[in-house]
Amino acid sequence: MVLEVNAERLMADMRTLAGFGKHGAGVSRTAYSPPDIEARQWLAARLEEAGLEVGIDNVGNVYGRDAARRSALLVGSHSDSVPMGGWLDGSLGVIYALEIARRAREEGFVGDVGIDVISFQDEEGTYVGWLGSRSVCRELKLDDVRHARSPHGEELADALARLPASFGPEPEMGRWVGYFESHIEQGPILENTRVDVGVVTSIVGIRNYVARFRGRADHAGTTPMNMRQDAGIQMFDFVHQFRAALERVRGPQTVWVFGNVSTKPGFNNTTPSDVELLIQFRDPGSDVLAAIDVAMSEVVDEVSRLHGAQIEIQIVLRTEPVAMNAGLASEIEGAAADVGASSVWMPSGAGHDAAAIGKYIPAAMLFIPSIGGRSHSTEENSHESDIVRGANVALNAAHRMTAMLGRQAGKQNIRAC
Q1: Where, by residue number, does the polypeptide cross the bilayer (predicted)?
Q2: Which of 88, 97, 246, 396 could form a disulfide with 76 if both were Cys (CB 3.0 to 4.6 A apart)?
Q3: Predicted confidence band of residue 381 (pLDDT cuts 50, 70, 90)
Q4: Per-residue confidence band for 411, with pLDDT thresholds at 50, 70 and 90
């Protein structure tokens, strides 16, 4: 039997959620902002209507538990956004999860493995990247991060004070036998190749660094070039050499960006004494990331020698690639075939909560096409037909996953006996 979502209800929920923090065609619903908290309270009410036991924990994760079952497939994503972001990033997976839970109850298809739903908090890193999912995985202790600050300087502790008191069941890693997340691709591949669904194979590892270059402030007109200690020139030499090194050691899916440059004193009549450069690179292979780390260190040594300077490299974020579970991924591929959708296996170039959860339990991700590949922008969008088709694939994939996970649990119980 091929299942179908209630498309009208699905799209109505998508548009209602998009109304919280609406900004033009997109949303500004950053973590712990009033629109974010209102959206979480709205979602909690919808999950309760769907027959789930509902709770909001002490970091703001919204959780719906199928109380009739001792184990569950966790389905969800995040509903916070970047500033002036899109209406689908994260939200798509949350509303898919809500609709899957509803249809599971309406069809009565769930056996021993239930459907739990979650909307993680601060996936976008307004305060701490993947705060909600890493908290659930016990990777973060709240006392260790409560002084983390937003770009506007607010401490996480002050943001947490705006949350309503936590209540209801808390997320329990021990009861979940798998995790399933749906998302827009945030890139152009599916649209350009006219494929309906992406079956995610892995989630990239990410390195964020700050490079600091130290020089000396001098008069830009009177100091001879060969007597200057110009931190800006150090930075430009570093970027030139590091880009060449990246081209040598990169993999086919390596991407990088030099994200921001700040200089002091920052005047055109004074040579820079201090420059900071933000660097990020990503790849789905740990070996490639390690090779880039080595190459960067070698470039730092060479530029330091060339200029007689001290260059400081500080790591800000380090995540390793995480493979998605092949068995669960195969169920997505099978579900796509069931509903007549084309599919392709592909890595994710963006980070997701599935990377945090997938280190501990089997995890899978589904992508739908993004129009023009746009994301993290108010121009982010997907065709309604793609949204509904993707929801039907996700619903049938969740049905297949719960059945598969239930069979596996049964075999384990037999072996235990």
Answers
A1: none
A2: 97
A3: very high
A4: low
Looking at the domain 205-319, which fold is it? Alpha-Beta Plaits (3.30.70)
Q: How far apart are CA 373 and CA 381, in angstroms?
A: 9
pLDDT digits (tens, 9 = 90+) for 55-71: 999 999 999 999 999 99
Question: Is it the case that residue 173 has pLDDT exceeding 90?
Answer: yes
Determine the pLDDT at residue 403.
94
Nearest to 183 by CA among 358, 12, 380, 365: 365
Q: Are 97 and 54 in contact (CB under 8 A)?
A: no
**All structural domains of the chain with their residue ranges:** 7-204+321-416, 205-319
Nearest to 119 by CA among 146, 95, 85, 150: 95
The DSSP-derived string for 179-224 is: EEEEEE--SSHHHHHT-SEEEEEEE-EEEEEEEEEE----BTTTS-
| 8 A C-beta contact, residue 18 and residue 87 | yes
CA 260 to chain CA mean position, Å: 21
**Domain 7-204+321-416 - what CATH class?**
alpha beta
Task: Scan for tokens 């991060």, then name that residue.
Answer: 145
Cβ neighbors of 321 (< 8 A, separation 6 or more) are 202, 203, 204, 205, 283, 284, 285, 286, 289
Span between the terminal Cα atoms of the chain, in Å: 33
